[in-house]
Amino acid sequence: QVQLQESGPGLVKPSETLSLTCTVSGGSISSYYWSWIRQPAGKGLEWIGRIYTSGSTNYNPSLKSRVTMSVDTSKNQFSLKLSSVTAADTAVYYCASFEDYNQTFDYWGQGTLVTVSS
Amino acid sequence: QSALTQPASVSGSPGQSITISCTGTSSDVGGYNYVSWYQQHPGKAPKLMIYDVSNRPSGVSNRFSGSKSGNTASLTISGLQAEDEADYYCSSYTSSSFHVVFGGGTKLTVL
User: Which of A26, A85, A101, B66 gives B50 a disulfide partner, CB atoms 3.0 to 4.6 angstroms apart?
Assistant: First the structure.
């Protein structure tokens, strides 16, 4: 069973860059799509983007100018960077596996809360 | 504002059936059979319950079923149980920007 675990700072200052890493265990990260999704407190889910293990990416148009995703197959990890953060970026951030053939998120990490505050 | 529209809340008594709707457009729900449903309990990660409009992943109870008509998809839960109380989100592929969009979520209360 594939398991995902997010890691990174829980507090980021406004205007700085949010950086998170997702470690995949129980399976290889190769030849698969991986995604980031976020959820502000009490609100719905927002897809941030996805990355294939080749490094190919697709981002949510509303966040595209601030998002960078990368993958490290040697460590079975993929990462998210979100620049110029504001309080509106405060949310629980989830990493998830993404099945491209049917557009589903089948395995999820437990989520990590990132607060943007000075 | 979410791309897909769901009712904010629904409720039902144990043993009853409820249906949650998810309305989109011809660019997403209506145009593709890539509608999924996720269940989220408080403080937990979402869990995939339905994919491809009406298919259940292994291990998901057959009390959960999905369907679609036009631009609206639906999730039906039959024989409601207390453990079904959770938030439910629909998602769909959208050709307008070639990615996945979510509904705003529906809180299910089991009375």
Answer: B66
pLDDT in tens, A68-86: 999 999 999 999 999 999 9
The three-state DSSP-derived secondary structure of chain B is CCCEECCCEEEECCCCCEEEEEECCCCCCCCCCCEEEEEECCCCCCEEEEECCCECCCCCCCCEEEEEECCEEEEEECCCCHHHCEEEEEEEEECCCCEEEEECCEEEEEC
Tokens found for residue A112: 């990590």
The rounded distance, in Å, linking the Cα atoms of A63 and B31 is 25
What are the pLDDT digits (tens) for A89-118? 999 999 999 998 889 999 999 999 999 999
Tens-digit pLDDT profile for residues B39-77: 999 999 999 999 999 999 999 999 999 999 999 999 999
B99 touches chain A (CB under 8 A): yes
Check if B88 contacts A (Cβ < 8 Å).
no
Give the pLDDT of residue B2: 63
Q: How many CB atoms lie within 10 A of CB B109?
A: 12
In chain A, which residue's Cα lies nearest the Cα of B91?
A: A104
Distance (Å, rounded) from C-alpha A56 to C-alpha A28?
17
**Alpha carbons A29 and A73: distance in angstroms, whole number:** 6
For residue range A7-48, list pLDDT tens digits in order. Answer: 999 999 999 999 999 999 998 898 899 999 999 999 999 999
Nearest to B48 among A44, A46, A106 (CB): A106
